[in-house]
Design a protein that fits this description.
heterodimer; A: seven-stranded mixed beta sheet; 12 helices; globular; B: mainly alpha; 13 helices
Chain lengths: ~400, ~300
């Protein structure tokens, strides 16, 4: 009995000691602003998680080396505490709790993917911790009335909206016949809702509306229907699996469709994995290096891409670019708030109106960025079989002319 | 519900042919499972992960500029040793134990394999391009990718070789003897330990072949193994353990069932339909298999 009491008091003493020492590692230590992020370094999102982390790190180094953040006449440097969320929403939520209540982090950066952002947002909201996220595009994130969530990217329902509008425009303003296949996950279903809205507004008709399972690796049935019904546009969204499977089977089954639009082409490295078979596919993207947005830190997209490649050895996917932009937003907000008070920083974030190399950033009351349109690029290959992604829409940013309709397989 | 498949007869033909080609590939994986289930009384939950690992072998050959079809030769050789190694490390400790122990052990192996593959190869979805082209039938109304035909052909070839091997070779006979009565076989001089290791190796090798074929027909991802485990489990439940024609037939049946479920219920219910069928069959067979060991003919 006595022994038990001693152990118990020892444990509680230890707990008190730990909790007090944890609090002492606060958000702003000396000349450092400490941000926290749960990120997928292992598990199924690990490749995009690493892109996100690389984007964050690159921006931290750049901002720190170019003078840091000036608040109250003093210069501060960014530092990020990362934890691996194992691509698991539950774990991500736990880690957000830990970052906030144990590590004393008062400002957060988002994780990778809509699902994980959804898991973390209620936690940051509960503690009133401002979070700038760059990789959660699901529309449902912005309809919950979150006050402390800010996303630098365009919401998911806008991903392929521009494809439908372009198709209608090319059809002389008349509605088109759409075939669509979407994975059963939050993101793809939001993309689908966007298409439904666009179809309604343009008087287009949806003739095939398939849902794809998470274990998707065969969409032959959808494609057989497409062959039979001959739609004007085929829209596919199922992350990298969906993009790779669609291109493989469209090429194998020689499915002719005038326009093929999808998401995640660059994450899937379509042109590398499929070469010429991926030619003419239209891909929705948050960012492309040829866009001419500018800022003081990374100059423009081309310079960012070159610097990123030099540092990490691969071309930056948009996931990295938008993550870097998140840091620029934080820096701007801290300086405008001129304070580390969470409420003031939150208000400064809400009032953001700036241009970065990644695009314009201005937040709607829901937290989504409303000032940056999606771009569409088309995979174009030369006769030697070397393929490149060229921006074709919106016209303002286009670096090449859209090839429409896609040539028939028999003519390629 | 969509009954388009019945309105256009050619779609039915397409669905049947797709299903049969797919089913033959499933049957190959299932045959491996039936073999080691029959011999060792082990339900291998990691079956699908062995398949995916085989797929990665073919994919890496493809990355190094070797045609991925050679994967059907290289993958089984490597996978055989992976299988034997796995047996020596883990499986030999759970043979002859309760079925649940083996399920738990292989479940653990499955998780470990998934994480290791994710760690080693990354979480990207990958595939190997065979460049095999397409076959058009009935005035282009039915299209069959040659890679699927190739897969079915290779699967049949391997199955035939295996059957002959089991009938004619010394080890094959030893495996069958052990399946019928391990104790008697041991008394009569069969080294059952060796037989078990070889059986698990052969199973892994078959998974390797199937994986290589999947990398050229579908896609490969570290977490995509489970659906293959489920399918092979179901095929074995339907066909029974020692029945190769049964495995082939129920494989094809499952393939066709999946394709039709895809057309009628929608792609989102494809795997769901397989699970539903599994439950129905299990209820129907009242877990007979877990109570009674069957012979491998």
């Amino acid at each position: 009995m006595k022994i038990n009491k001693i152990i118990l008091s020892f444990i509680s003493a230890l707990a008190i000691l730990l909790s007090t020492s944890a609090i002492s590692i606060a958000k702003v230590v000396g000349d450092k602003i400490i941000l926290g992020s749960a990120i997928s370094l292992t598990g199924k999102y690990s490749s995009n998680g690493v892109h996100t982390q690389n984007g964050y790190n690159m921006a931290v180094d750049r901002i720190n080396s170019m003078g840091g953040v000036k608040v109250g006449g003093k210069t501060y440097k960014f530092e990020i505490i990362y934890y691996d969320d194992e691509s698991n929403p539950k774990r991500a939520a736990q880690l957000a709790e830990r970052l906030i209540s144990q590590d004393g982090v008062e400002f957060m950066l988002g994780p990778y993917s809509s699902g994980l952002t959804k898991a973390i947002a209620p936690v940051t909201e509960k503690y009133g911790v401002p979070m700038v996220e760059a990789n959660g595009a699901s529309r449902s994130l912005f309809t919950k009335g979150y006050k402390y969530l800010f996303a630098v990217l365009a919401p998911a329902n806008l991903y392929l909206d521009v494809a439908i509008r372009t198709a209608v425009e090319l059809n002389g303003g008349k509605g088109v016949r759409i075939a669509q296949a979407f994975e059963q996950d939050a993101f793809s279903q939001d993309v689908r809702l966007g298409i439904l809205d666009a179809a309604k507004e343009t008087g287009s008709e949806i003739i095939i509306d398939d849902k794809l399972p998470k274990e998707l690796n065969d969409m032959a049935a959808t494609l057989v229907k497409v062959k039979q019904m001959k739609p004007d546009v085929l829209v596919v969204s199922g992350h990298t699996k969906g993009a790779l499977t669609a291109i493989r089977q469209i090429a194998e089954m020689k499915v002719d469709v005038p326009m093929l639009a999808m998401t995640h082409c660059d994450a899937a490295k379509l042109s590398k994995q499929h070469g010429k078979n991926s030619q003419y596919a239209l891909c929705a993207s948050q960012w492309h290096k040829t866009l001419t947005y500018k800022d003081d830190f990374f100059k423009d997209g081309m310079t960012y891409a070159a610097d990123f490649t030099k540092e990490f050895g691969y071309d930056p996917p948009y996931q990295a670019a938008e993550s870097s932009a998140a840091l620029l937003v934080f820096k701007d907000a801290f300086e405008r708030a001129n304070s580390f008070d969470q409420k003031k920083v939150r208000d400064a974030l809400a009032a953001t109106n700036m241009q970065t190399f990644y695009g314009n950033i201005k937040f709607a009351p829901g937290g989504q960025n409303v000032d940056k349109p999606m771009v569409l690029f088309q995979v174009m290959c030369d006769s030697a079989g070397k393929c490149e992604n060229k921006v074709v829409a919106p016209l303002k940013w286009a670096s090449a002319k859209l090839i429409h309709p896609v040539p028939k397989w028999s003519e390629r | 519900m969509d009954f388009m498949v019945f309105q256009y007869p050619m779609i039915s033909v397409q669905a049947c042919l797709d299903g049969i080609l797919l089913g033959i590939l499933f049957a190959l994986i299932a045959y491996g499972m039936a073999l080691q289930w029959g011999v060792m009384n082990i339900i291998n939950i990691a079956q699908g992960d062995l398949v995916i690992l085989g797929g990665y072998i073919a994919y890496f050959m493809y990355l190094f500029g070797i045609h991925p079809a050679w994967g059907v030769i290289v993958a089984p050789i490597i996978m055989y040793f992976v299988g034997v190694g796995l047996y020596k490390l883990v499986i030999n400790k759970v043979v002859d134990r309760d079925l649940f122990i083996s399920i738990l052990a292989t479940f653990g192996i499955s998780i470990l394999f998934m994480q290791l593959m994710n760690f080693a190869f990354g979480a990207d979805v990958v595939l190997a391009n065979s460049g095999y082209g397409t076959t058009f039938l009935f005035d282009s109304a039915v299209v069959l990718p040659n890679s699927k035909i190739f897969s079915a052909f290779v699967s049949i070839l391997f199955a035939i070789c295996l059957v002959i091997y089991m009938k004619k070779s010394k080890l094959g006979r030893a495996i069958r003897a052990t399946a019928q009565n391990a104790r008697a076989a041991k008394i009569l001089g069969v080294d059952t330990e060796k037989v078990y290791a070889a059986t698990f190796g052969i199973n892994a090798a078959l998974c390797g072949v199937a994986g290589a074929l999947i990398s050229i027909t579908f896609t490969i991802h570290p977490y995509m193994g489970l659906p293959y485990t489920i399918r092979s489990f179901m095929i074995v439940i339907v066909a029974g353990l020692g029945n190769l024609p049964g495995v082939a037939l129920s494989g094809m049946g499952l393939g066709v069932f999946e394709e039709f479920a895809d057309y009628i219920l929608g792609t989102e219910f494809r795997i769901g339909a397989v699970f539903l069928l599994l439950v129905l069959i299990l209820v129907y067979r009242r877990f007979k298999l877990s109570r009674k060991r069957e012979y491998l003919k």
